[in-house]
Design a protein that fits this description.
Helix 1 runs parallel beside helix 2, helix 1 packs parallel to helix 7 and helix 8 packs parallel to helix 12. 31% of the residues lie in helices and 25% in strands. The longest helix is centred in the middle third of the chain and has 13 residues. It folds into two domains: 204 residues, Enolpyruvate transferase domain (UDP-n-acetylglucosamine1-carboxyvinyl-transferase, Chain), CATH 3.65.10.10; 208 residues, Enolpyruvate transferase domain (UDP-n-acetylglucosamine1-carboxyvinyl-transferase, Chain, Alpha-beta prism). The protein is built from 14 helices and 24 strands. 51% of the residues are buried. It is of the alpha/beta class. It catalyses: phosphoenolpyruvate + UDP-N-acetyl-alpha-D-glucosamine = UDP-N-acetyl-3-O-(1-carboxyvinyl)-alpha-D-glucosamine + phosphate. Pathway: Cell wall biogenesis; peptidoglycan biosynthesis. Belongs to the EPSP synthase family. MurA subfamily. Its EC number is 2.5.1.7.
Amino acid sequence: MEKLVVKGGHRLSGTVRVSGAKNAVLPIIAASVLGTEGSVISEVPELEDVSTICKVLECLGLKVDASKPHTLKIDSHVVTGYEAPYDLVSTMRASFLVMGSLLARVGKAKISLPGGCAIGTRPIDIHLKGFEALGARIEQGHGSIEASAPNGLVGTTIYLDFPSVGATENLMMAASMAKGTTIIENAAQEPEIVDLANYINVMGGKVRGAGTTAIHIDGVESMKGGEHIVIPDRIEAGTYMVASAMTQGDIKVENVLCEHMKPLIAKLREAGCTVEEGINDVRVVGPRKLKPITIKTLPYPGFPTDMQAQVMAMMCIADGQSSVLETVFENRFMHVDELLRMGANIKTSGGRAALIEGVDKLYGCQVRATDLRAGAAMVLAGLVADGTTEITDIYHIDRGYENLVTKMTALGADIQRVG
């Protein structure tokens, strides 16, 4: 079994370039089903999740050419299938995103119940209620969900009970070829939503208001294809920014849109970091001693839940008491037990709140990457720990970080992949 071995105590410095956003490229690849001519997507990160959703498209009859680095050519002239198999969907929840595009393109979809990181129930009922509002018939059973719209989808107004990113994306895709106009109210506002809308519009769709709480989609009869450049990964960028903060480092992170990073930038400054914002980059200089901070995760533009674990690792070595309130997912403290093994002082309450008393030192030991972002937190903790940290279950990390070892090593970290 492969693992990461991190020897702590090294100050990180230098320049690192962020890859395209995992959470943007997955729905964009799923949306490629909508076009009848094919598309070219660039700034595609080379990740396990990307490989998985490309396999889903190939099961549907599309042709995917990934021969050029960081570029996908997707031939979507013909869609021969409408079912995403369990062995793919079970490994990655984002596979469920092909349901909206399949309903729009071929009028039916059958998807196995999704898997992915075990960070909470993340129910898909919001997606299904939206599909039903558009006129789809939903049938559940035997571990799969089947949706059909033999007479096509019809535009309507849909209010989301929670501003779910996945539901917003899925319904945008479904509504893009529905008859009439669809309005998604209480929509998610994440930058990845805007990126998907831009891609749909390049293919010939008509989406307005992405990035606000009300998205208007005028249905079109058909879509072609297009070329699109994926936005930078704000969570990968944030992880390297926190690495600089924790190691008293000086890291310039390139290919960053600082507008997407405002909550983290504010908290890093509050913790005593120097943060210099550029047009396409950000420089973070870590202080000699981090100050304690308080974070509360919220849907965008609030503090991102995907940065909670990494920032908690930072809080573990701050001078004083910090706190975390997790409001997005109900099972996102699995990294706490692993940090405690390293000597952290953390008390949780109700699975949603945590108090972190900073300690002078963390200690290297064997820990698990319990999910994608928890794995990143273990790497960060290992960077400052006394001794050697061995991280297992690193397949989680591979799902979201391209060339992590190479990039960290270039910054001065002592990290190896072994096994």
